Amino acid sequence: MSQEQIKYKQISAKVVGSNVVVFRLEDETMVKVYVDMTRVGVAVDRKNPDGTPLYNFNTALRFDLQTKDKTFYAPAPPLPTKSTDNKKGDQAYTA
What own/partner pairs with CB < 8 Å and gap ≥ 24 does 71-76 have? Predict the structure, then answer.
């Protein structure tokens, strides 16, 4: 059984104010939540029962955490290997 499809016209969206909400957790960790509207559409041939426009939203959420002691872990960068045919392999790794 195929699902009914609604046709939407893509429209743009602008941020009013800030797209970031900041929370302070009980353990003093700061959580920043970023909200982005990746796609917004308004129905072309359909409205809500009360006559208002019918919208379709796609959103993206991103979270940044900052602990009280401001420490974190990250993977170590790969170290170059010595090679007889590659002089760059003798150089120290720098990021």
Answer: none
d(CA 81, CA 73): 24
CA-CA distances (angstroms) from residue 63 to 5, 40, 59, 73?
A: 33, 22, 13, 16
Question: What are the tens digits of pLDDT across the range 23-71?
Answer: 999 999 999 999 999 999 999 999 999 999 999 999 999 999 998 888 8
The structure tokens 């974190």 sit at 72
Q: What is the pTM of this model?
A: 0.61
Any idea where the domains of the chain sit in the sequence?
A: 8-68
